[in-house]
Amino acid sequence: MFPASHALLVIDVQNDFCPGGALAVPDGDQIIGGINALMDEFPSVILTQDWHPAGHSSFASTHDATPMSVTEMPYGPQVLWPDHCIQGTHGAAFHPDLKTDRADLIIRKGYNPQIDSYSAFFENDKATPTGLEGYLRTRGITDLTLVGLATDFCVNYSAMDAARLGFAVTVLTDLSRAIDFDGSLAVALGDMKNAGVQIDG
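RE: above sequence
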């Protein structure tokens, strides 16, 4: 059992990111059993949930653009995704095999229609907080282990922000899966290592 100062952060294990979903990550459902087992080793478990309103600015359909193309937003480059994780839909729900009862907290992100939010800590402007940092600080949590979807986007952004905020961060790659969009996985792993994130698995 990990100490009370160490939390497990499970990123976006939702139907739309699993096989058959609108933005499926290859083998995204293959990590769920391992994540469920790992929850038993942590006193604190936190889940994140992508939670977009219909017509979100990060959707390709909103711009009449090709999915996976890139546009420029006021906060920087933005990949335009297929419509996914729309609030209240089956796609936005956690995968039914995920053991959600263990969660102390569920952080919903991406609900602002004007800005995407990959990180569990900040929207993509890297300035607007989700409130997760304050929650962790008040509970005395200093160490985070991250798992989930996708390694090169929401797991990566969350790990990088956590390290920047001074948390000790580990990413378990065997319990995460990547989109690997134009080599994005290798870039993400390199960036995380350079930021002091421990990569295991």
